[in-house]
């Protein structure tokens, strides 16, 4: 969403573009909190370890008022640039590239919430994948300090960062895209399922209110797959799953065609 045509991707969307998995935040690149994993020696403190300012947040779009991004709340929604995944149904592939700079300064968010005190309940950080960016925590803290609630839309691609910022979050909309072992069919990224379910466990352990949702992509997921997702959630005590219909708008043309073909096939009498 830009300020006019809001990116409505998030975790509803995808497009396999080579640039999506390149860069310092690409999958497999350790985040600060992940540096001890895999036997890596602790890194010396460097610029990447310094706290990031809210002004460093790369923002692709800002919707000043939304009643549908956090159930029951009136919010402003910030769309963070960049996502490490490449979902089949991504509705706004322009938000995927991680090297694309933001087009909206965080100052616009500051100015907006200063004007909307008493009118907005909170700010939702969406994307793209907002947990990709180190500046997210600082941005969330500013929003909280200004007296607003903080919502987060995430696919759970960066559990280490989620663990760092979950204490600043009041509500999470978490996408569970597929059964854990089948994630790459949607995201085109290996190990994405493990990260998403680790993120789910972090949210549950933190006791933060969460809405779990699945975009049902009929080019990939069957009814049995959705049943498997429900079973995996039930193991964690989650018995309510919001199902979202995959939509063709904003997706790559080949996906829109595949979606149409899948729907036609499903409508054929046996
Ligand atoms: S996780 Fe990333 S690629 Fe997938 S739908 Fe969301 S923004 Fe698009």
3D architecture notes:
Helix content is 27%, strand content 16%. The chain has 270 residues and is of the alpha/beta class. It has a seven-stranded mixed β-sheet. α3 (159-165) packs parallel to α5. The N and C termini lie far apart (41 Å). The site of iron/sulfur cluster has 17 residues, from loops.
How would you concisely characterize the structure shown here?
This protein is an alpha/beta fold and 270 residues long. The protein is 27% helix and 16% strand.
CATH uppermost class of one domain: Alpha Beta
Total DSSP helices? 7
C-alpha Rg (nearest Å): 18 Å
- Proportion of strand residues: 15-25%
Q: State the oligomer.
A: single chain
User: Which residue ranges are poorly predicted, with pLDDT under 50 across at least 5 consecutive positions?
Assistant: 1-5, 9-47
How would a textbook summarize the main sheet? Answer: 7 strands, mixed
Give, in spatial order, the strands making up the sheet with the most strands: 1-2-3-4-5-6-7
Ligands in the model, by name, code or SMILES, are: iron/sulfur cluster
CATH topology of one domain: TIM Barrel
Average pLDDT figure: 85
Task: Classify the helix fraction into a percent range.
Answer: 25-40%
Would you count the extended β strands for me? 7
Structural class: alpha/beta
Principal-axes shape call: globular
Order of helices and strands: EEHEHEHEHHEHEH
Measure the end-to-end span: 41 Å
CATH superfamily assignment of one domain?
Aldolase class I
- For the record, the CATH architecture of one domain stands as Alpha-Beta Barrel
């Amino acid at each position: 969403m830009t300020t006019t045509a809001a990116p409505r991707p998030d975790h509803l969307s995808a497009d396999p573009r080579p640039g999506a998995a390149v860069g310092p935040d690409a999958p497999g690149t350790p985040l600060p909190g992940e540096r001890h994993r895999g036997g890596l020696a602790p890194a010396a403190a460097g610029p990447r370890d310094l706290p990031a300012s809210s002004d460093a947040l790369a923002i692709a779009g800002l919707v000043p008022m939304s009643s549908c991004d956090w159930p029951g709340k009136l919010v402003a929604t910030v769309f963070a640039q960049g996502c490490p995944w490449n979902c089949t149904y991504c509705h706004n592939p322009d938000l995927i590239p991680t090297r694309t700079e933001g087009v909206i300064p965080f100052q616009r968010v500051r100015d907006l919430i200063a004007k909307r005190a008493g009118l907005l309940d909170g700010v939702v950080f969406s994307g793209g994948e907002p947990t990709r960016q180190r500046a997210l925590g600082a941005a969330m803290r500013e929003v909280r300090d200004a007296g607003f609630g903080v919502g987060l839309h995430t696919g759970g691609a960066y559990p280490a960062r989620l663990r760092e910022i979950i204490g600043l979050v009041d509500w999470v909309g978490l996408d569970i895209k597929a059964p854990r072992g089948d994630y790459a069919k949607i995201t085109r990224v290996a190990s994405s399922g493990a990260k998403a379910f680790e993120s789910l466990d972090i949210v549950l352990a933190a006791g933060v209110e969460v809405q779990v949702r699945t975009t049902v992509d009929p080019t990939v997921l069957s009814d049995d797959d959705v049943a498997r997702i429900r079973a995996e959630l039930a193991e964690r005590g989650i018995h309510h799953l919001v199902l979202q219909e995959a939509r063709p708008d904003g997706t790559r043309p080949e996906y829109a065609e595949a979606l149409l073909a899948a729907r036609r096939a499903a409508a054929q009498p046996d």
